[in-house]
Amino acid sequence: MAGKIRHYFAGGNTAKGFHHFFESNLSSLSRLWILKGGPGTGKSTLMKQIGHAWLEKGYDVEWIHCSSDPDSLDGLIIPSLQIGLVDGTAPHILEPTAPGAKEDYVNLGQAWDRKKLEGQIEEVAKYNKEIEESYQKAYKIFAEALLIHDEWEKIYIENLDREAANQLAESYVSSLFGNVNLNKQGEVKHRYLGAATSQGAVDYIPNLTYELPQRYFIKGRPGTGKSTLLKKVAKAAEERGLDAEIYHCGFDPESLDMVIVRELGFAIFDSTAPHEYFPERDGDEILDTYEKIIKPGTDEENLPQIQTIQKRYTEKMNEATACLKKAKYIHDDLESIYIQAMNFERVEKIQQAIHAEIEEIAQGT
Q1: Which residue in 302, 239, 323 sits closest to 68, CA to CA?
Q2: How much is the pLDDT for 101?
C-alpha cells in the first residue's frame, strides 16, 4: 500500500522579509542531502522522483513546498528513515552541523555545460538582479500592508474584554489537554500555515488535518485574540511533553495560525481569510472570538473605517503578490538558460546514487 504525503511550507515571503524554519524540521534527521545548483538544475524534480519512489514502497513522506512557487519543492523528508533532502541555495542557505557524518552537499552544477553558460553571464546577472529587486519590493509592500493591518487590529483591541479573552483561552487549554502530562521532552516543529506565493495565498490545511478527530475553526476579526490563544495552546503542549506542530502566519511570522497535537488528535487554527474553512464533519467545531470577547456592535460602529482599511490592505496585498508573480516570470526565464545547459543524464545518476544510499539506510532499520 502506498504511503501518504504531508504538505507544508517551512519558508515564507513575509512582511519581515524571507523567513524560514528549516532547521526546526530538519534537526531530528540522521541523514540529510543539501542540494546545490542554479535554477533549472533539477533539484525539485529530483526530490519529487525520490519521494514518489518511496511512497510506492509504502513510506510516508513530507513535501516542503517552495513559498514562491508551491508547485516546486524546497525539501523532502521520509520521517521513518530519518532522512531528508533540501534545496540549500539562496534564500534558504543551510550550513551542515556534521559534514560527511550527517549532511552531504550535492552539487547539481557538476551536470551543466559551463561553456554554454559563460556566453550568457550578463543575462544571468541581469535576471538575478531583477528577481532580487522584485522580492525586496514585495517585502517592502508587505511591511506596509502589515502597518495597515495593525490599524485594523487596533479597532478590535480597543473593544476587547481581556478578562473574557483569558478565560476563553484557559477554558480551551483545559478542555484540549485535561490532565495529560507526559514524562518526556516534546518534539516541536515550527512551520507556516500558508504562504504568500506568486499564485496568491496557498495553504494545505485539509491535507494536514484530515486524519485528526477534532478540528477547531477559530473565527473572528484581526486583533480578536486568535494568535494569543494559539500561543497559549502551543505553550501548554510544550510544557506537558507533547509533540506539537506550530504553524506560523505566512504574512507575519511572529503570529500563530495553527497548532496540531497529533498525540491528542486535534488541530486548532485561524479559519479566517485567506485560509477560511468551515466545519464539514463530526468533530469539527467553530470558536468565534469576536462573539465571545469583543464588545457587541463594534463592527457596526466602525464600519466605514473598517471598509476603508480593508480596501487599502487588499490593494497592498495584491500589489505585493504582483511583485512575486513578476519574480516568478523572470525566474522562469533564468531557469530556461540553465535547463538548456544541463546534462540531465548526469542528474539521473546523482539521483540513483542518493536512492541507493537510502536503500541501504532502509535495510538497516
Answers
A1: 323
A2: 61
Is 125 part of a structural domain of the chain?
no
Strands of the sheet containing 83-87, edge to edge, are 103-107, 31-36, 83-87, 73-78, 61-65, 5-9, 188-192, 244-248, 256-261, 266-270, 214-219, 284-288
Instruction: Tell me how many domains the chain contains.
Output: 2
Determine the average pLDDT of the residues in 253-264. 98
Full domain range(s) for residue 346: 5-112+342-364
Contact between 247 and 192 under an 8 Å Cβ cutoff? The reply is yes
88 and 205 housed in the same domain: no
Q: Is the dihedral of CA 119, 121, 127, 128 positive or negative?
A: positive
Residue 43, burial from CB neighbour count under 10 angstroms (0-12, 13-18, 19+): buried
Length of the chain counted residue by residue: 365
Overall pTM surpassing 0.85 (yes/no): yes
**Calpha distance 212→189 (Å, rounded):** 17
pLDDT digits (tens, 9 = 90+) for 41-75: 999 999 999 999 999 999 999 999 999 999 999 99
Q: Looking at this protein, which amino acid is placed at residue 155?
A: I
Q: What is the pLDDT of residues 219-230, one digit of tens each?
A: 999 999 999 999
Average pLDDT of the residues of the chain: 94
CA atoms of 171 and 276, how far apart (whole Å): 24
Q: What is the dihedral of CA 49, 55, 60, 64, to 10 degrees?
A: 20
Query: C-alpha 241: how far from its chain's center?
Result: 24
Phi-psi region of 220 (alpha: psi -120 to 50; beta: other; left: phi over 0): left
In the DSSP assignment, the letter for residue 220 is: -
- Find all residues with CB under 8 Å of 305, minimum gap 6, and list them: 155
Query: CA 180: distance to chain centroid?
Result: 29
Q: Determine what percent of the chain is predicted with pLDDT higher than 90.
A: 87
